[in-house]
Amino acid sequence: WENVWLLFVGRIHPDSDVDTSGWTSTPLFEKLDEVTPDDASTEITSGTVTSVCPSNTVHDFEIGLSNPTLTPTGGEEVTLKIRAWLHEVSGVVIIKDLRVQLKEGANVRATLNTVLSLSYTTESMVLSQAEKDSITDWDNLSVNVRTTLCMENPGGSAHSHVTWIELDFS
Q1: What global pTM score does this model have?
Q2: Which architecture does CATH list for 2-169?
């Protein structure tokens, strides 16, 4: 079993676009699949946000993930990671939410909720045993990313940026 375990340790990366609305430039997955994040060298950018609170602007995208070499056995630590930042072009962003969902087909298996930072930051979450156990087809995974933003005052604008997504097995 030790040899099987050593073969499995690894990562899966984006390998296809599922939904790209509101983000540039396509194909998105090609900018998000690097082994080591390279920040602004290959990043994707949301559409411009100018909405004033309490009206929010939501931008979603979804990318498919590559298949793991071996199906997890349940004992692995599985970590969902994303590297993103918020660019306040002008004005102040009041709401700067980032939601990252690991999906199997149409079913959400794990959700990371956090806040976008003003510089590139890696956010991660370790899947619980129940979240791992809920996945029955590791070859049918995707990641849906949603940013929800609103500006403090009229005339402000902002963009969200993402440079890297990974599902890590250790």
Answers
A1: 0.92
A2: Sandwich (2.60)
